[in-house]
Design a protein that fits this description.
heterotrimer; A mainly alpha; B alpha/beta; C mainly alpha; A: mainly alpha; MetI-like fold; 2 domains; 87% helix; disordered N terminus; B: alpha/beta; six-stranded mixed β-sheet; 9 helices; globular; binds adenosine-5'-triphosphate; binds magnesium ion
Chain lengths: 271, 265, 286
Amino acid sequence: MSTADSATIRRKSLKKTITDSRAIQLIILLIGVVILWSLISAIIERPDRYLPSPMTTLFSSVDLLKKGVLLSFYADTLNRLVIGSVIGIALGIPFGLLLGLNRNIADMFYPLMNFFQSVSGIAIFPIIVIWFGNSNTTVMIVILYTSFFPIAFNVLSGVRSVPMRYISAARTLGASRFQIIKDVLLPGAMPSVAIGSRLSIGFAWRAVIAGEMLAGQAGLGNMIFAGQELDNTAQILLGMMLIGLTWIMLDHFLLRPLESDTIERWGLVQR
Amino acid sequence: MTGEAKLIVQGLSHHYPDEYTGESVHALDNIDLQIHENEFVAIVGPSGCGKTTFLNIIAGLLPYREGRALVDGTEIRGPGPDRGVVFQEHAILPWRTVKRNIGHGLEIRRVPKAEREKTVQEYIDLVGLSGFEDRYPHELSGGMKQRVAVARTLCADPVIMLMDEPFAAVDAQTRITLQDELNRVVMATRKTILFITHSVEEAAFLGDRCIVFSRRPGHIKTEVKIDIPREDRVWKDMVDNPKFTEARDNILRLVRSEVTNDVDS
Amino acid sequence: MTTITEFSVAIQRRFGRQRLRKFILGMIPFIVLIFVWHLNSIFVWLDPVEIPPIADVWGAIFWLQSDCPGVIAAIEGHGDCILTNHVSSSILRVILAMVVGVPLGIGFGILAGMNRVVSAYLEPIGVFMNSVSGIAWIPLAVVWFGVGWETTLFIMLNTIFWLLFFNTMMGVRAVPKVLIQGVQTLGGTRLDAILQVYLPGAMTSIITGLRMSMAFGWRALIAAEMIGGDSGLGFMIFVSSSEFKTEEVFLGIILISIIFLATDRWLLVPLEKWTIERWGLVWKPT
Ligand SMILES: Nc1ncnc2c1ncn2[C@@H]1O[C@H](COP(=O)(O)OP(=O)(O)OP(=O)(O)O)[C@@H](O)[C@H]1O
Ligand SMILES: [Mg+2]
């Protein structure tokens, strides 16, 4: 009886993995995409210029790896992302807090922030270039600028969304203003900090790529840009894949788990 | 009853294929049933015995392979306006007003607006929603939403109306009111109805016949006739109507024996 | 004196006390900023190449349009109407991309979302496309289409298509099955189900997609014009920057954000409100 049961369950789980598993679905999808891609590149004229086959694209990575540039590009880009977004977030959190805590300050700076947020990091690039030239500083400023706003706005609304009754409760316990901030408002705003950080890093990722392209600084962005100038389409495709995959990995395995953990742990804000 | 039955089910069985095991869940077993015009048939049975499965097959929402099912003489192939369904809950469109939800069936059939509005108003009045024509579902209570659902189905004028535990999600007080109202509506419209419920009382109160399903695989265990004229079916009188209490206790015993069996094995 | 009081009472009545207070407070930083900017042009703490005087930025409008024969010529796109030509070529691309991309994205999104298997397979593609979309496509687009209209249009189209496709698909997928069944049992066809259930059911999600596509698309378009374009505001500020015409860059940037803010505030937000009212409520799938 029990062996039959466990056999059924085992068979069940096996079939389940085959039909339902995201991993298997992904593999099937991937194979499909690669086949389609190969087909298209086989029929078009001058595939090396317009759409190199998956194999060619893959080999171009071997080439770049041998030259040792691929890894250093990768490291440069990630490095910029981390430094730029960390500084952006570190500046955005206190600013958002300040605005969240004081209605007057918030009303005063909200429109200004809104305006500057809509002046995207990419659009300010030509000015920053005039100020700092085609340099790493320029790229960093663009990243920093882009990542500042999402976190600041989120922290602001996070602090605002802490229910009044928590604050009143703390006050009836005799908490001081500082204690209320530390014990109620900050923890209450934690989920928003997490959500905002993920958004900020997402925006920063786009900004790194654009910044590197525009300012000609070594990295993945410049790799695809150079691919175009060198007529090396395989390098462009490789760079695009790396850009997409890196973001998905980063988001899926680091940022999203962090976000949901924080929300779960600190998610005391009910609406 | 004279004339051809509105719903004819012969030897209907159903197996759900189980994607995981390759084995199948035997949900319905050899159902034979006929429902005649103006009849109100209630189905009760233990949870998971296949009542919803049965109704979904009749509604055409679930394809069947074993047996036959005919409505008005034609084989059931997919859903259609000849069978109106009142679902358990949350099945009216949240972005349409009461009026437009109720008239939806007519709209689908391209009935001209003037005529549609007239018919809709009749049913709004019938289910007691006058004054709420232009409200959206989120502005209504659970009971009112179900009234909209009933009116929507009535308004499409189906040959047979199928109801799957339509009052299960409302509070006890509202349920009693809705049952009384449904009775009134049935008297006024003389609809043929297949009604599924968990509640033995509800079945005995509403049904002309009550079909008791066995536990899974569901088959018809027995049928109890409840021979009370519609006019007499009002809750305040029913509680001490001996015919009602007898039928109710009878059905209850039959259902209980199914449930207890379940526990024993 | 009385007229002033009357006036302020009238304004307060029109806008409400709170909104008036917010408006005035919100203006303060702008005024301070403009004031400091103006001081800089008097005392020249920073070189005019770095921060141009306000008057120069304002003057750049006329300087760029100086050879333009008139309003009619500007509308017709006369070659000498430099500023208006750049503005209209950017806006035209947005309109074109929206006209093509929005129906396509929504259409395919609905079709994909209706089928569980198809949408399960297409979801990762959507995620991938949205994470490379926009800027990272520019070099490839330049290879495919060369520098110019096609590339910039492609970048905008590509960005908004995937955003709308993905958002619509997810919205459609969240529509409860029982609503579809309800329409089917009323005799509704597949088209009825699409128009009356899937589309309104996914509407909040579609609007989110629309606002996102404008936000991301506009940024991507500016970048595309910088790298792979030969006209448009992005192209203009990029060229001006390389020629150190900072006043033109400032002008361009201000126009870029005004155009974006105006579309968002006066078009998309009202559209969002209108649809929400029209469709009855802020309907979110539970
Ligand atoms: N889609 C499905 N796939 C596989 N098995 C199913 C499916 N739907 C229902 N079943 C199984 O079929 C049996 C009958 O289900 P059904 O929903 O018809 O019962 P029911 O009588 O309506 O129950 P309840 O009173 O709880 O509503 C159940 O055992 C259920 O687990
Ligand atoms: Mg059921």
